[in-house]
Amino acid sequence: MKNLVVFASGSGSNFQSIIDAISDEKLDANIVGFISNKESAFAVERAKKNNIPVFIISPSAFDKEKEYSSLILEKLKSWNAQVLILAGYVKKIPGEVISTFKNNILNIHPSLLPKYGGKGFYGLKVHEAVIENKEIETGCTVHIVTEEYDKGPILGQSIVEVLPTDTPDSLAKKVLEKEHELFPLVIKKHLQTQN
Ligand code: GRF
């Protein structure tokens, strides 16, 4: 069974969907730790409620990226982490961490990448752009994290139809529901390729 560490900065509903998939025996994995840059994030509450060890660390507290990444790597090593899951984590993962966990960092993004990815495309901004451009479909993507933001190999996508009546908020809700189904499934598939 693989050891996962989840990173999140917000509500952590995707984090919850992974916790639930494990407890429902749909996903065979251990969550050995949780990392956030934000102590007040609701995701932190979810970790505590599920007795998952929490580590709070923010890059802004460090002058040198090296010090920041060393602390993260030290913590990941102490947890014996094997796969990192970014579930709404807003900070950049340091290059040293990406190379240490090469091909084993998964991120979920609320669009059909490569569309609406990269700098500036986060949260409602993604859905606003989708509506502005009169797209007829959108969705979510799980991909491998590489040094290039939102550009790593795509592991899975789910499509959501965009209706003329949709607003950025309604799209966000529909896409998030799909994310909760997609992420645990893609993680499962990825772990199967790792044996
Ligand atoms: C999701 O929309 C995800 O695609 C993006 O951040 C959001 C996190 O939502 N990367 P939640 O905290 O899991 O509810």
Question: How does this structure look, described?
Answer:
- The chain is α/β, with parallel strands linked by helices and 195 residues long.
- 38% of the residues lie in helices and 22% in strands.
- The protein contains 6 helices and 7 strands; from the N terminus they run βαβαβαβαβαββα.
- It has a 7-stranded mixed beta sheet, covered by helices on one side.
- Strand 2, helix 2 and strand 3 form a beta-alpha-beta unit.
- The protein is globular and about 50 Å long.
- 5-O-phosphono-beta-D-ribofuranosylamine is lined by residues 8, 10-14, 87-88, 108-110, 140, 176, 179.
- The site of 5-O-phosphono-beta-D-ribofuranosylamine has 14 residues, from helix 1, strand 5 and helix 6.
What are the segments in which pLDDT stays under 50 over at least 5 consecutive residues?
none
Share of residues in helices:
25-40%
Compressed to H and E, one letter per element, the order equals EHEHEHEHEHEEH
Helix count from the secondary structure assignment? 6
Separation, N- and C-terminal Cα atoms: 9 Å
Trace the largest sheet across and list its strands.
Answer: 3-2-1-4-5-6-7
Largest β sheet strand count, sense and barrel closure: 7 strands, mixed
From the spread of the alpha carbons, the general shape counts as globular
Ligand list: 5-O-phosphono-beta-D-ribofuranosylamine
- The number of strands is 7
**Structural class estimated from helices and strands:** alpha/beta
Features:
single chain; about 200 residues; alpha/beta; 7 strands; about 40% helix; globular; binds 5-O-phosphono-beta-D-ribofuranosylamine
